[in-house]
Input
Amino acid sequence: MRRAVLTDIELPDFGSPVTEPVLDRGLYATRLERLARRMAEHGLDALVIYGDREHMANICWATGHDPRFEEALLLVVPGRPPTLFAGNEGYPYAEAAPGPFERRLWQPLSLMGQPRDRYTPLADLLRDGGLNTGQRIGLAGWKGFESADGVFDPHWFETPQYLVETLKRFGEVSNAALLFMHPEDGLRSLNEAEQIACFEYAATKTSSAIRDFIIGLRPGMSEHEACRNMGLDGAMQSVHINMSSGPRARYGLCSPSQRVIQRGDPIVLGYGLPGALNCRAGFVAEDAGDLAPGIRDYVERLVAPYFGAAVAWYETIGIGVAGGALHDAVMSRLSDPFFGIGLNPGHLIHLDEWVHSPIRKGSRLKLRSGMALQCDIIPATGTDYFTSNIEDGIALADEALRGELADHYPGAWSRIVKRRHFMTEALGITLRPEVLPLSSIPAWLPPFWLAPGKAMAMW
Output
């Protein structure tokens, strides 16, 4: 019978990208055509997308514009060029975006105290952009209200009240976030080869940063000093760096501080760029002897069953698999309340770290080619055992999509093939051919961060 064991594992260098994939204007034009077809299927005459710095994914998918200091709006009326509304600073910045759209300045999107000398009522600008009275209008923000059984309320809006009220003057308004974020067929749930290549580029950077932090970690460093080992290069983050040690590590989401890291500390680290997030958790230790006496069975009690559940995730996931089946494969191994699993064991990832999740109890939603998914199984024991964590991303790609990636992105494809070989040969994880690991620490789980040459494997 196979079991999870702690063993000597050499983590290979899978290589680094030498060029950065980019999305061109033609791809955005194709996306807008797909969006128009989806609007017609849902009976929408017009669509308004709202975005801000934290919630930029839908508007960026359609235009390439990521709002910075300000919010932004995109009006889509089929048969007309889309209109992007931006404030004083966003308006010139939007010119850098590759998507096909027209720009309009609407100064109330600007920060308080900035000029409003060119103000025009929003309703007038929307009308100029093609919005007419009596239309059925979709409003896409960044989420909506779902009941416990997954029923979406089309009349619940998380977008600004002024926007909802202005649109209601034109016609019936409904929440259209699921056009982009539906967990089975949302426009951002199914990715092109170009987008997957961008995600692989991002995941290579984030996972390499996590690896370098762990390998360079030493007791006596401050948390800030340890983070310098990550070699960050200024790339736009989708998630602030989650890094903490000692008592604060239990909260997971804290930012690093000047606290001095000590031998025996629990420790957690997460780093995200658009399309990728990697996280690991463990102890600042060389072996179980560095732990408190009551938790020296940490590997046997927590890490081994956790790794077994992660292996089940990887070995179950594939095209056509129901989300509920993947959920059950994990939770059948971690059902004991000790593990404290509270969130979905995996979800869709895109420019935002969490899009939606087809992976939940009883879900009949099927996983499809083009999906990018995060292995994201988080024990919250609430005990001195702390937690163990593997968060890495994969893409699902059928034979045609795999061929497209191999032909157009040979560097990325080479890294993916090497990662699959490592997972199979070194870690004992069997993968379906459509499972493409995007992380350069794929399922690598060293429980003791002062001994990174020892990691979990399934034998």
